[in-house]
Design a protein that fits this description.
Layout lengths: L5 E4 L3 H4 L23 H33 L6 H12 L4 E3 L2 E3 L4 H18 L9 H25 L6 E2 L3 H30 L9 H29 L1 H11 L3 H26 L4 E3 L2 E3 L4 E2 L26 H17 L8 H21 L1 E2 L5 E4 L1 H25 L20 H6 L11 H18 L22 E7 L6 E7 L8 E4 L7
Antiparallel strand pairs: 1-10, 2-3, 2-4, 5-6, 5-9, 6-7, 8-9, 10-11, 11-12
Helix pairs in contact: 2-3, 2-4, 2-5, 3-5, 4-5, 4-6, 5-6, 7-9, 7-10, 7-11, 9-11, 10-11, 10-12, 11-12
Length: 522
């Protein structure tokens, strides 16, 4: 062990007395306290989560309802009932207008509303929000819409005398509003704090869950994109039917504009139905059905978006569309094979991706379908979600095997620092690899001789260089005022050296020592 060495560290004056920062103060209740324990700042955040998305939704509904009434030349007597019914329709609550029951509502407004709720919830669940306060965020995201729903139910009952609107079932209305907003809030919070949710589980989260869930979410996006592309192609193939629909149903410019807006709002419903058809499932259209294997004719609504529904008969080349979910499944398996530790005997990430995609499509199918008056029920069948799982599991397994064989090495698991023992990195291990320290060109003796020769040359050129650090721009005696001196000192109770920090000519600096062991030899 060489002699103790002294090193000087120059610190600027502001750094000498850095104020000690206190830990961030929690904004919420701090462990599940009552409402009085909430700070005013966090209470304002909860108010925004509860009210902002609902206020934006109501504002858009207000504008659309009054624009429609003015365009139709009618009065504003039933505007309150129309606004209440529109709020319930955005939340997919089944309604009875006159004698017509409607449970198939446009999915686009619902998705936009849920996106607003998820965004506000994600912003509220930032890093300063404690895990115990996330329940307040989810409660606010659900409580605000439920309060507005109660008001709309009361308004709908009072407006039944002016408009042909029957009050919906109260329990069904609250259930639809609660689970949709809760789903959006959980998705928004989970996008920011999923690691903390995983820490709350009674068992550690397996390493294949997160890669599988991400691959499943990407697979859902690819299935929806492929269905949208097929829908656009079907529109182009049936362009004449779209013109006939506008000619028969729209008698004016405002009527054509209304049909266009309505078709755009129902377009996500058609895309979700298209996924069920792509994977080999069926879509119920009243008494009929639509699939790649057969079409049972049934009347469809006279809206332009319904022109994408083929009238039959089934063409043989339609079966080639089954290659789309197969390719998406293989791609999902490749991602799982490259980002997880899946192997032939345990493809857990691949199965997780298939399960996540199947559940997501089942939820979308439940929201996108429903009763539509005399047309009957228009919705994808449960078989579509089951086939999504089958395609992503079977084709994904093939893709996972391909990733293992041709896609390079699997992901290396993170190893704790304690797993690396000191004796694993002895010099003998490197010597076995052909690296000989004896032949190193940077030998200690050669390096010292070269360094001494360089000092002699400097002394010959500049006699002032004999003085240590004189006019060298490093420091002088005055510069030592307020500096910190770090040196290795001997431990009083043992042989191990410690790093000592002491102040030079500065009584405001407190002495501190940090114990360090196993320092390398010179």
């Amino acid at each position: 062990m060489s002699a103790p060495r002294t090193a000087l560290a120059r610190l600027s004056d502001p750094d000498l007395r850095a104020p000690r920062r206190s830990p961030p103060r929690p904004r919420g209740g701090g462990g599940g306290g009552g409402f009085g324990s909430l700070t005013p700042e966090f209470a304002r955040v909860l108010m925004l989560v509860a009210a902002r998305a609902s206020a934006i939704t109501l504002l858009i509904i207000f504008i659309l309802v009054y624009a429609t009434l003015f365009a139709a030349g009618g009065g504003t007597g039933g505007s309150s009932g129309a606004i209440a019914a529109s709020w319930l329709a955005v939340h997919q609550v089944p309604l009875v207008i006159g004698k017509t029951g409607i449970g198939l509502w446009p999915l686009l407004p619902t998705l936009l509303m849920l996106w607003l709720v998820a965004r506000d919830s994600a912003q509220a669940a930032d890093s300063d929000c404690e895990i115990n306060d996330l329940g307040w965020v989810a409660g606010a995201a659900v409580g605000g819409p439920l309060l507005i729903t109660a008001v709309c139910l009361a308004v709908a009952e009072d407006a039944a005398a002016l408009v042909p609107l029957q009050p919906p079932d109260t329990l069904a209305a609250f259930a639809w509003v609660a689970w949709l907003n809760l789903l959006a809030a959980v998705a928004g919070i989970g996008s920011r704090r999923w690691r903390e949710f995983a820490d709350l589980l009674p068992i550690p989260l397996p390493d294949w869950v997160v890669p599988g869930a991400r691959a499943g979410a990407r697979a859902v996006g690819r299935l929806l994109a492929a269905s949208a592309l097929v829908t656009v192609v079907s529109f182009l193939l049936h362009w004449s039917r779209i013109g006939d629909t506008y000619h028969a149903a729209a008698g004016s410019i405002s009527g054509a504009l209304g049909l266009s807006v309505l078709s755009l709002a129902y377009l996500p419903n058609v895309v979700v139905d298209g996924v069920s058809v792509l994977v080999g499932g069926q879509v119920e259209i009243g008494p009929g059905s639509l699939s790649l294997f057969g079409i049972e004719g049934a009347p469809v609504p006279a809206v332009p978006v319904a022109a994408a529904v083929p009238a039959g008969p089934v063409a043989l080349w339609w079966l080639a569309l089954l290659l789309v979910p197969a390719a998406i499944g293989v791609l999902s398996g490749l991602e799982c094979g490259r980002s997880s530790h899946d192997r032939a005997t345990a493809p857990w990430a691949t199965l997780t991706a298939a399960g996540v995609a199947a559940v997501a499509m089942a939820l979308l199918g439940a929201v996108a379908g429903g009763e539509l008056g005399t047309f009957g029920r228009i919705a994808p069948t449960v078989l579509g979600a089951v086939l999504v799982f089958v395609w992503l599991a079977v084709a994904g397994y093939v893709g996972m095997l391909g990733a293992r064989r041709f896609g390079g090495p699997a992901a290396v698991p993170a190893v704790a620092y304690d797993d690396y023992e000191d004796d694993e990195y002895e010099y003998e291990d490197y010597a076995d690899d052909g690296y000989d320290y004896a032949d190193d060109e940077y030998d200690d003796d050669d390096y010292d001789d070269e360094y001494d020769d360089h000092d002699d040359e400097l002394d010959d050129e500049d006699p002032a260089a004999d003085e240590p650090h004189a006019d060298s721009g490093w420091y002088d005696d005055e510069d030592l005022d307020g500096a910190l001196v770090a040196e290795l000192v001997d431990d009083q109770d043992g042989d191990e050296p410690v790093a000592g920090v002491k102040s030079v000519d500065n009584p405001d600096i407190v002495d501190a020592e940090v114990v360090e062991g196993d320092l390398p030899d010179k």
